[in-house]
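Request: Mind sharing a record?
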Amino acid sequence: QVQMVESGGGLVQTGGSLLLSCSASGIDFGTTTMGWFRQAPGKEREAVAVFRYAGDFTRYADSVRGRFTISRDDAKSTLTLQMNSLTPEDTAVYYCAAQSSKYGIASMRTPMYDIWGQGTQVTVSS
């Protein structure tokens, strides 16, 4: 059964850090492009960072580049997002997601991803 489960969200002050983890089952990390996305209240879901299946290429949204780092541990089937220097604008529900098709491109387009976790809330207070 294919499943993705996020953890690590919470409440943090401006300037703080959080580490999000996504435990994936039924997914071959070596052939699957996956990433982190977020959705703030009243806004569309957007890509934050994506990791190409080969593990050789990552992409970041302009708003998080230099502050967030996406990584993965193939042996543990875990995708992580280290978030530093958080601001209230980072407040959102964060989702991990994957493309069901193998060898997918590192797209920042949300519709390209069709396997989703349930999300974890991140709230940054000012």
